[in-house]
Amino acid sequence: MSSGKLTITPLEGGAFFEVAGRANFETAMPLRDYCEKLTGRETVYFSMAECAGVDSTFMGVMAMLALKAKRQNCSIHLAGADSKIKSLLSGIGILKLFVQHERIPDELKGGPASPLQDAGRSEADRAKTVLDAHETLVEADGKNAEVFRQVIDFAREDVERLKKK
Predict the structure, then answer these.
(1) Strand, coil or helix: what is 53?
(2) How confident is the model at residue 2 (pLDDT cuts 50, 70, 90)?
């Protein structure tokens, strides 16, 4: 399955992410990098208007960013998501973490967007991202504990195996 495309337009005091195609594990890695750099008071927008689907790792990293943003008094928004994407995000209890907009605010359109690329993480870092993303989905909504129990167990085993290399 090919990865989607994630672009970022820097904003004064934040960022505007556009998600296109199928957002998956590969698309989540550079978003995780941004999440780690979040310092507080930023305004972050996600445009999902061109998004065809999202996997659980990408949703987990979205939740990671949203929870960190909330803890740091950042404003995090979701715009243009269709009913399918909203249903996926709602189904795992993370839609509530975002201020929702039907359309992308006009002032965000047309800025200088740049693709976000994976910074070349190790296999161990990638396994840790999968683990952290799914644990964050459980943090965001406890009902996800059973849904993602096996994924978390396998990811934890991968992390431990890769530590020994």
Answers:
(1) strand
(2) low
Which residues partner with 51 through β-bridges?
21
Which residue type occupies 144? Answer: N
| pLDDT tens-digit map of 97-116 | 999 999 887 877 767 778 77
pLDDT at 1: 44
Distances (CA, A) of 122 to 2, 126, 129, 143, 154: 20, 6, 11, 31, 18
Distance, in Å, from the CA atom of 99 to the CA atom of 95, rounded to the nearest integer, reads: 9
Q: Reduce the DSSP state of residue 5 to 3 states and report it.
A: strand
For the domain covering 5-118, report its CATH number: 3.30.750.24
**99 Rama sector, left if φ>0, alpha if ψ -120 to 50, beta otherwise:** beta
Q: Which tokens belong to 118?
A: 């994976």
Q: Residue ranges of the domains in the chain? A: 5-118
